[in-house]
């Protein structure tokens, strides 16, 4: 299908926020203006699109936001957009504001909404992957994931000091409702003795037996990282205490992992992907995501991007366990 010439684009952030979204917004706005396009920011995601929360953006609109966490466009989850009436209202707002294309910065749920706009209305949309879980198909990295891992690792390094000093077991809960990406990364980088993730079953009896055996060999501290979607850290800690008799403490890192200034890697990734998203729209691309594979940016069908990502978690898990012995 031939895409009409792009003159005015919309830009929104949707779903969970993450570090680097603002860097991407800045890149999209300034590259689009450099290319002769007009840019409109849509506030509060798809819900804001339905409600007509649309505002023109210029180069000054995105001054000094490169290092900010979160998103200046705000974000929200919209159940209304899942309905046909909600989608019709969103399409009306698009027409009322003279938008020729849309760039959506977000994760899998956001991309499903973008895919819908193309499938149902043939409205050109490009997705930019931004999620701390790094769980989007067709890209090696997503905006925000590197910062979230480093934020969690910073905390775990500090907890390790206390765990060693007091000779205790710590169960640390990190974000990851459906994926164990963060838990795997910080488990390996932080020298965790074990991890619990939704991708694999865990055996609390085996874990407790390993702790007892390690204690007999003189091991004085133990860190177990739990992805929030796999188990409750409090419940895991309680079971370990009952089965080993050793004092076990719990730390839930929570939403601290979503915030803060983005890392250099996230800023660079966000800037590159944002710029390419604009170029894709101008070139007539639609229903695509900008992904990075082996450091090269490529166009990925949104229909593929929204499918569950297959990751070899077992190899990393085995490495964590070997190194913990």
Notes on the structure:
- Helix 7 (204-216) links the parallel strand 7 (194-196) and strand 8.
- Helix 6 (181-189) packs parallel to helix 11.
- The protein has eleven helices and eleven strands.
- It folds into two domains: 8-144 and 262-305, Rossmann fold (3-Layer(aba) Sandwich), CATH 3.40.50; 147-258, Phosphofructokinase domain (Rossmann fold, 3-Layer(aba) Sandwich), CATH 3.40.50.460.
- It is of the alpha/beta class and 325 residues long.
- The longest helix has 22 residues, at 145-166.
- The strands form two sheets. Strands 3-2-1-4-5-10-11 form a seven-stranded mixed β-sheet, sandwiched between helices. The chain has a four-stranded parallel β-sheet with strand order 7-8-6-9, with helices on both faces.
- The N and C termini lie far apart (58 Å).
- 48% of the residues are buried.
- 43% of the residues lie in helices and 18% in strands.
Q: Which second-level CATH architecture of the largest domain applies?
A: 3-Layer(aba) Sandwich
Quaternary structure of the protein: single chain
CATH topology group of the largest domain: Rossmann fold
Specify the number of helices. Answer: 11
Mean pLDDT: 95
Termini gap:
58 Å
Strand content: 15-25%
Structural class by secondary-structure content: alpha/beta
- Cα-atom radius of gyration: 22 Å
Helix content: 40-55%
Number of strands: 11
Identify the overall geometry: elongated
Largest sheet: 7 strands, mixed
Number of domains: 2
Q: Poorly predicted ranges (pLDDT <50, ≥5 residues)?
A: none
Question: Which CATH class of the largest domain?
Answer: Alpha Beta
What letter string, H or E per element, gives the SSE order?
EHEHEHEHEHEHEHEHEHEEHH
Strand arrangement within the widest β-sheet reads: 3-2-1-4-5-10-11
């Amino acid at each position: 299908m031939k895409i009409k010439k792009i003159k005015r684009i919309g830009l929104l952030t949707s779903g969970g926020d993450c570090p680097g979204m603002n860097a991407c917004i800045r890149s999209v706005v300034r590259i689009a203006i450099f290319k002769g396009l007009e840019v409109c920011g849509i506030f509060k995601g798809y819900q804001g699109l339905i409600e007509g929360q649309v505002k023109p953006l210029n180069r000054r609109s995105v001054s000094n936001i490169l290092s900010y966490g979160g998103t200046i466009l705000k974000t929200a989850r919209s159940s209304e957009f899942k309905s046909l009436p909600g989608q019709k209202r969103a399409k009306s707002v698009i027409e009322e504001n003279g938008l020729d294309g849309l760039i959506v910065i977000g994760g899998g749920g956001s991309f499903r909404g973008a895919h819908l706009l193309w499938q149902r209305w043939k409205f050109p949309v490009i997705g930019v992957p931004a999620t701390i879980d790094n769980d989007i198909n067709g890209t090696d990295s997503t905006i925000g994931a590197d910062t979230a891992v480093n934020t969690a690792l910073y905390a775990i390094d500090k907890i390790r000091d206390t765990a060693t000093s007091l000779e205790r077991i710590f169960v640390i809960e990190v974000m990851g409702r459906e994926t164990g990406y963060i838990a795997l990364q910080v488990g390996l980088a932080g020298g965790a003795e074990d991890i619990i993730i939704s991708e694999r079953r865990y055996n609390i009896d085996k874990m407790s037996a390993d702790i007892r055996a390690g204690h007999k060999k003189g091991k004085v501290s133990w860190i177990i990282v739990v992805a929030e979607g796999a188990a409750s850290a409090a419940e895991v800690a309680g079971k370990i205490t009952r089965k080993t008799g050793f004092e076990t403490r719990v730390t839930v890192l929570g939403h601290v992992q979503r915030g803060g200034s983005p890392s250099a890697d996230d800023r660079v990734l966000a800037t590159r992907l944002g710029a390419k998203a604009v170029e894709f729209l101008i070139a007539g691309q639609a229903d695509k995501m900008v992904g990075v594979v082996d450091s090269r940016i490529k166009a990925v069908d949104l229909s593929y991007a929204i499918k569950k990502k297959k990751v070899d978690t077992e190899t990393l898990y085995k490495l964590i366990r070997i190194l913990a012995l």
